Amino acid sequence: MKKLLLIGLIAAGYWTYSTGMLDSWVAQAELENKSLTDITCEDLGRVAKGQSLQNMFGAQFRILELTELRKVSSSASEVTCRAKALMSNGDQSVLTIKISLVNGEKYFEFRTN
């Protein structure tokens, strides 16, 4: 039983590493104590990489790479950036990444245009 649990943990670890989710989780943790004025588009790009997006037909695609990150707007309650994104289905899209501060909590939004 211990061997099966160990194999499961190794498989889960490999999955989080290979999908980029581990990097995204670490990036989110790093932003937890940063104020919105200190958060850069590169910070948001590290959070976005590895995230999955779902289209209106239910298909899911992961964000593989981001280039040309640029800030669109910034205020005391939110930061919005745009980037060119390479998706797991091979498409390149313009990705909007937003972090908002609501009641002291930080919320992320990822969407393609």
List keywords for this structure.
single chain, 113 residues, alpha+beta, five-stranded antiparallel beta sheet
Radius of gyration: 16 Å
Class derived from helix and strand content: alpha+beta
Sequence of secondary-structure elements: HHHEEEEE
Which band does the percent of strand residues land in? 35-45%
Largest sheet: 5 strands, antiparallel
User: Reading side by side through the largest sheet, how are the strands ordered?
Assistant: 1-2-3-4-5
Query: Could you give the distance between the termini?
Result: 48 Å
**pLDDT averaged residue by residue:** 86
Total of DSSP H or I helical runs spanning 4+ residues: 3
Counted beta strands: 5
| Tertiary shape | globular
Specify the oligomeric state: single chain
Number of domains: 1
Question: Mind sketching the topology for me?
Answer:
Layout: H1 2-18, H2 21-31, H3 41-48, E1 52-54, E2 60-74, E3 78-87, E4 92-102, E5 105-112
Antiparallel strand pairs: 1-2, 2-3, 3-4, 4-5
Helix pairs in contact: 2-3
Notes on the structure:
With 113 residues, the protein is of the alpha+beta class. Helices cover 32% and strands 42% of the residues. It is built from three helices and five strands. A five-stranded antiparallel sheet has the order 1-2-3-4-5, covered by helices on one side. Helix 2 runs antiparallel to helix 3. The longest helix is centred in the first third of the chain and has 17 residues.
A few lines on this structure:
This protein is of the alpha+beta class and 113 residues long. The protein has helices at 2-18, 21-31, 41-48; strands at 52-54, 60-74, 78-87, 92-102, 105-112.
